Amino acid sequence: MKDQFCVLFGLDGVLIDSESQNKIIWKYIADKYGSETANMEQAVKEKGMHDILSRFFSHLSEEEKHKLVNELKAHEANLRIHEIKGLKHFIEDLKKNGIKIGLVTNSSQTKLDNVFKQTDLNSTMDTIVSIENLSKFKSSISGFELAAKELGFEPKDCFVFESSLSAIETAHLNGMKVLALKGSLPKETLLHNTIKIISDFTEISLEELKKL
Questions:
Q1: Which InterPro entries does this entry report, sorted A to Z (predicted)?
Q2: Residue 75 and residue 158: Cα distance in Å, rounded?
Q3: One domain for residues 175 and 109
Q4: Cα 110 vs. chain centroid, distance in angstroms?
């Protein structure tokens, strides 16, 4: 890839290590509101709240769903944020070399506000595309496509760091080069649609990125 490119990041499991805390709160919510936890963990990483409520909590009344969402927001507002190892140095290197970067996430604004309160990620991102941004568009444009457009790049000139299987597939189908952070997923599940798999950002550098 030529030197002129942008880099897009997911949030959970990519910029922040929130997997263990998310697992606890969703287990609590599933037990309290009566839902099976099978397949929920992966769905939570990949789907928006509307899809999660429809798939796992369709038996609840609208009032109960509203209560569930408020409980989740309270959790997200108090989530202790831990950045993925090596992230700060990697982003500093990108910014120092004039590389445009963006955040693409399904996370709620409550969670984003908490992340930005505890980190400097808000000020380092050149664009942020959340599910709220995307809902304004009637077309089927993906968050990655919108972020690339806002940064002024074609999809082929974008690197994407993701940990969600559905997000990895979307970015790949958009024509972008995808690097996966493996998290708790088996490595073999990430081989398809990715050009490199890493555990954290100590395993990648700007110079290595340019060679991919």
A1: Beta-PGM-like, HAD-like_sf, HAD-SF_hydro_IA, HAD_2, HAD_sf, PGP-like_dom2
A2: 33
A3: yes
A4: 15
Its pTM stands at 0.86
Instruction: Supply the range of the domain harboring residue 62.
Output: 19-77
Pair (173, 119) in one structural domain: yes
| pLDDT score of 182 | 85
- How many domains in the chain? 2
SS percent in the chain: helix, strand, coil, step 5: 50, 15, 35
Q: Residue 30 gets which letter from DSSP?
A: H
pLDDT tens-digit series, residues 102-126: 999 988 888 899 999 999 999 999 9
Tokens for 192?
């398809």
Question: Using an 8 Å Cβ cutoff, are 14 and 161 in contact?
Answer: yes
203 belongs to a structural domain? yes
- pLDDT computed for residue 38 by the predictor: 65
Within 8 A by CB and 6+ apart from 54, the residues are: none
CATH code, 158: 3.40.50.1000
pLDDT in tens, 46-98: 677 888 898 899 999 999 999 999 998 888 888 889 999 999 999 999 999 99
Beta bridge partners of 160: 8, 178
Is the separation of the CB atoms in 86 and 50 below 8 Å? no
Two tokens at 202? 């100590």
